[in-house]
């Protein structure tokens, strides 16, 4: 269900189940977790094979869950999303075609969501009597704001790439998302790591500034060592 390819500083992780629009089973989540754990490159590029990015959780799997296995399945998806969000490098989701439910949640866990004009996004779990439980209810309002998050999640409506960009759900719209990942790979990996840490720092302002100074000083020291 998951394939990987490394070219230089970029590791591509592909959701490879096109006949099911790359929907993820428990086994697929395990494979995705393993692929992330194995990665050491400065840039990780997540994409889908075929005409979809990811349809989210496999519906056959969802229908087979009882309360106990549902909790385990949700935790497994949350763990994968957490691994993406905390990857020691830049993570780019290349969204081409539909991203639904868990597919949106995986994209939300990435640093950048780069969409093609054919990309569409929907948190459509509400139509099934469910909602995204792979961290989406936490990450979506942080990315688009509470009001827009409620509109997206309560309605289950489909956003095209232009509207997703307008709301900040995707970072860019381009025909070739992979080029964004390649361009990030030209940057200093340590600087990218420190930028991620500082932007996502949720501590008190004074503490953030102190940690920012320390990170900046570290990077200056690395420049001096290399001169």
Protein described:
This protein is α/β, with parallel strands linked by helices. The chain folds into two domains: 2-183, 2-enoyl-CoA Hydratase, Chain A, domain 1, CATH 3.90.226; 188-226. Helices cover 48% and strands 17% of the residues. It is built from ten helices and nine strands. It has helices at 26-38, 59-63, 67-85, 102-109, 136-144, 146-155, 161-166, 178-184, 189-199, 205-226; strands at residues 2-7, 10-15, 43-48, 90-95, 98-100, 112-115, 120-122, 159-160, 172-173. The strands form two sheets. A six-stranded mixed sheet has the order 1-2-3-4-6-9, with helices on both faces. A hairpin with a 2-residue loop joins strand 1 (2-7) and strand 2 (10-15). Helix 3 (67-85) runs parallel beside helix 4 (102-109) and helix 5 (136-144) packs across helix 6. The chain is globular, with a radius of gyration of 18 Å. The model has no long low-confidence stretch (mean pLDDT 94). This is Enoyl-CoA hydratase/isomerase family protein. GO terms for molecular function: isomerase activity. Pfam families: ECH_1.
